[in-house]
Amino acid sequence: MEKIKDPRQFFFAIICNVCRYRCGTLQEMRLHVTRNCPVQPRKIDLCCGHCGHVFYKWPEIVEHLNQKDMHNQPAFRPEYVFPVDVRPDITLYPEDPENIMVCHIT
Ligand SMILES: [Zn+2]
Ligand SMILES: [Zn+2]
Predict the structure, then answer these.
(1) Ligand 2: distance of its center to the CA of 33 in Å?
(2) What is the DSSP letter of 103?
(3) Can you give the pTM of this predicted structure?
(4) Which ligand is the nearest neighbour of the Cα of 46?
């Protein structure tokens, strides 16, 4: 399976209320609701672990989570924290500008 690369890894989970699937990026959740939800694909019923708000329209949760600094926000309750150890390696985004310059485009 191809590794998903999304720079916006949230500290909280985005939760599919249909089947309780949870993930830490919009990209993964998009795949889930469009294809992978085992209960009811294409139904949007998503809980934002940052504030507990439930979204029934995909563009609304995208707009909500695309706010500035959202990826630095904590979960509003401990059970909505998304485990840090499942995050992809963030060395893809080096802070040293010289490292960015030598990155190979593949
Ligand atoms: Zn689901
Ligand atoms: Zn929220």
Answers:
(1) 18
(2) P
(3) 0.74
(4) 1
Q: Which two tokens stand for residue 14?
A: 């985005």
How far is ligand 1, taken at its centre, from the CA of residue 29, in Å? 9
What is residue 101's predicted lDDT score, i.e. its pLDDT? 43
Q: 86 C-alpha vs ligand 1 centroid, how far in Å? A: 19
Cα(54) to ligand 2 centroid in Å equals 8
Q: Could you read off the pLDDT of 61-101 as tens digits, one per residue?
A: 999 999 999 999 999 999 999 876 555 544 434 444 444 44
- Range scoring the smallest mean pLDDT among 54-58, 60-64, 85-89, 102-106: 102-106
**Rounded CA gap, 73 and 15, in Å?**
16
In whole angstroms, what is the distance from residue 84 CA to residue 14 CA? 14
